[in-house]
Every structure is written in structure tokens, then in C-alpha cells.
Specification:
2 strands, 193 residues, 6 helices, 2 domains, mainly alpha
């Protein structure tokens, strides 16, 4: 199955190391190598990234944004070349996730640019909040949290093994990854402390 209509990624193109973003011009991925007019560097678009008091969370979001863009640009040709409906649905879902994540990051950056406050709606902020909370816990509380997290990992893995609710599989995998990251952070804190 081939698609002829190019999909636009918010009219932006990021290139690793010397990242560039076109102005408000729409550039499709099919013309990925064409010369762009009115290009801006990423740090020109959001100059607060150069400031020493720029929140670390926003710098992490920019890194994620570049990663998601590359994921998107790698998935786009796969969407055009997929053979089965299932394959197309899988690639389209991953493509849409990358696109929506990019849009959420864009909103965070634009909000900070205008208000000099972090909006905090992107899911990564929940992860950062969790890390800050863990770092403020006592060793006793960390050990309790470690056990709870291990139990949660066991529960989610057993639910995945059952496979009785395929519509929840993606959410369960995401939750498992979240618990595993939390456990790793707890283990790091306990080993350092």
C-alpha cells in the first residue's frame, strides 16, 4: 500500500548537532534534502536554552524532541512501504505518537518562551517529579517503595503473560517500563546512600 500525500511534521526539520528549524514554512519529509529558506537554529527559536538558569527539564525535552523527530522521519518511509493493514496500523500508531509527543514538547517550549514558567503538562514532568520525590525520601521509605515497585512489576508482567486483554497491552507495557525505571532509580539511590 503506497500513500502519495506527504505528511508534514509541524513544518519543522531538526538536524542533530546544529539543529535547524524552518520558520513557519511547511516542509514535508519527502523534500527532506531540499534547501530550505528562512531557516532558524533551534537555539535561536528558543534563546532561553542558552541561558544558565534554563530548567534541566526543558533541555531534556529538547533532546527528546530531536529523538522523536528522527523516529518520525524513519517511520514515514515505512508507512509508505507497508504491505499489510496491520503493519500500516502499527507504523501509523507509532508515527502518530511521535508527532503528538513533538507537539506537546512544542507547547512546553512556547509556553516557557512567553511566560518564563514551566507548563509541566508533558508526561516527562511526571517522571521528573517522581525522581525528586524519591530523592527526598529516607532510606526506610525507599526500601518500602522498592518492595512496592517490585510487586507492581511482578503484577504487570503477569498480566502481560496472561494476554487476556490485548487492548490494554500497550498501556501495560508503558506502565512496566515506568515501574522498571522507578526501580532502577531507587536502586541507584540505595546503592549511593
Amino acid at each position: 500500500m503506497r500513500f502519495r500525500t506527504p505528511i508534514v511534521f509541524r513544518g519543522e526539520r531538526l538536524e542533530a548537532r546544529g539543529e535547524r528549524i524552518p520558520g513557519e514554512q511547511n516542509t514535508s519529509l519527502t523534500s527532506h534534502h531540499s534547501p530550505l529558506t528562512s531557516e532558524k537554529k533551534l537555539r535561536d527559536r528558543w534563546p532561553f536554552l542558552n541561558e544558565p538558569d534554563c530548567p534541566v527539564e526543558l533541555q531534556a525535552l529538547i533532546t527528546r524532541r530531536i529523538t522523536r523527530y528522527h523516529e518520525y522521519s524513519n517511520l514515514y518511509p515505512q508507512l509508505r512501504d507497508c504491505q499489510t493493514l496491520t503493519e500500516c496500523a502499527n507504523v501509523a500508531g507509532r508515527l502518530l505518537d511521535a508527532y503528538l509527543d513533538n507537539q506537546a514538547i512544542f507547547r512546553e517550549m512556547e509556553y516557557y518562551q512567553k511566560h518564563r514558567k514551566v507548563l509541566g503538562r508533558h508526561p516527562m514532568f511526571r517522571h521528573f517529579s517522581q525522581i525528586y520525590k524519591l530523592r527526598s525520601m529516607s532510606v526506610r521509605d525507599l526500601i518500602r517503595e522498592q518492595q512496592k515497585t517490585r510487586d507492581n512489576i511482578w503484577r504487570v508482567r503477569s498480566e502481560l503473560r496472561k494476554g487476556d486483554k490485548p487492548h490494554l497491552e500497550e498501556k501495560r507495557r508503558a506502565k512496566l517500563q515506568e515501574y522498571e525505571m522507578k526501580l532502577q532509580e531507587i536502586n541507584n539511590l540505595l546503592n549511593d546512600g
